[in-house]
Amino acid sequence: MKNKYSLAIHGGAGTILKSSMSAEKEAAYKGVLESSLLAGEEILKNGGSSLDAVEASVIVLEDSDLFNAGKGSVFTADETHELEASIMCGRTLQAGAIGAATSIKNPVMASRKILDSSDYVYLSGQGADQFAKEQGCEMVPNSYFYSDFRYEQLQAARGSSRMKLDHSTDKKFGTVGAVALDQHGNLAAATSTGGLVNKKYGRLGDSSVIGSGVYANDATCAISCTGYGEFFLRGVVAHDISCLMEYKGLSLEEAAQLVINQKQVALGGEGGIIGVDHNGNCSLVFNSEGMYRGSINDMDPMPQVGIYGDMLS
């Protein structure tokens, strides 16, 4: 049976150890995930667009310092914060993305502005910040993204030439995202991240790259990825899932399982995806210990959230 609307979100994947997760912290994570789902679902149930819904859901996650996106973004090797985000419309295949931005409070909003009002798809650095400011996005000093927790992560990574994956002890891929089907049959996806701890040289991951970290096409699916960006870039993961559905006739779940649990594993990639197809079926697939995730739809309007490899609750 086709759902009238569906929404799924994620707050990052990786080796999220239960041993380092207190009951209070787990409740806090799940609380924000639920708030994100409800923000998007409020739009969908009232006939709003999937684009508006994924943007609203991601904004909630960006405004929380629990996730490595927006407010909770990690430090670069230069003790700054560089933000990435993207959004895509499945109906028109229009997309907007930013990379290496430093002053945009909600990067996903700037991505949406690009999709809606410019001739571009991808803006980076000072240009992305300038465009966002001209479009009326809320701008903040780079210090807005500071937190003691993130600074301690950077210090733990000092002296190493390797970038760290959000946590200095747990391999957690700090990305947030949302995918949705609206009542008009249109799909959309959005992804946002603060990148990797101790990253250098203006490194960009997959989160802001259309086709790798995000993709949406009404004929197939909407996908948002979370994982080690270099592997997801090499695998063009989001678009690959859509192609397997379009050209080989695989279901969303079959395509996602193939890409994440076979092709990415073969490359050495760790992480996961959230997806929704044109019938409203959701797929939340990961090859890591856990993934902050959740889903909601018109048939089951109670937020379902989870962290580890267990069922959503």
Automatic annotation (TrEMBL):
Matches recorded under Pfam families: Asparaginase_2
InterPro entries on file: Ntn_hydrolases_N, Peptidase_T2
Organism whose genome encodes this protein: Reichenbachiella ulvae
UniProt superkingdom: Bacteria
Membrane spanning residue stretches: none
Name of this protein: Isoaspartyl peptidase/L-asparaginase
